[in-house]
Automatic annotation (TrEMBL):
Protein keywords: Membrane, Transmembrane, Transmembrane helix
InterPro entries noted in UniProt: PMP3
Localisation: Membrane
Organism expressing this protein natively: Chryseobacterium tagetis
Lineage top rank: taxon: Bacteria
Protein name: YqaE/Pmp3 family membrane protein
Transmembrane segments: 26-46
Principal subcellular localisation of the protein: membrane
Family statement: Belongs to the UPF0057 (PMP3) family.
Amino acid sequence: MLLAILLPFLSFIVRGKIFTGIICLILQITLIGWLPAAIWAVLSLHNERANKRTARLIRAMKENKK
């Protein structure tokens, strides 16, 4: 989370989203664009975690039906 706030572009690159990280870096280079880049990175991180949590729940529900 701290990485997403301080270095938003690096947060994307570490998660394997190279092209998105480059776009975020371009946005982050401007002083005004740093805040939107940080918000974008944090929201993206939360969304990815929520998707993984949902996938685990769906797998668990399918296993319980069997």
